[in-house]
Amino acid sequence: xxxxxxxxVDTAIDTVLPSTPxxxxxxxxNPATVDFRVDWRVGDIPVSALLYVYDLNGKIVAQSxxxxxxxxxxxxxxxxxxxxxxxxxxxxxxxx
Length: 96
Hints:
Blueprint: H1 3-16, E1 25-28, E2 35-40, E3 50-54, E4 60-65, E5 70-71, E6 78-84, E7 90-95
Antiparallel strand pairs: 1-2, 2-5, 3-4, 3-6, 6-7
């Protein structure tokens, strides 16, 4: 493929696969063994916002204020999902 054609391929890829927006929050450490926290990538979060931990069946297995360290000692090893009130984003959490 000539070098000139590479620019059109890059443009086509950017059009078909738009960049993924940055996450509003990031869970760390991930994977977790004892507990985890959330780092915010956006502005202020309402004080009343709650953080929910869901198992793979969609059952809430833990909830906490969004700014707390969340213990996962009571949860079996596996994959869980983190959701916070007011965000259309879910983060995956592995517990080992």
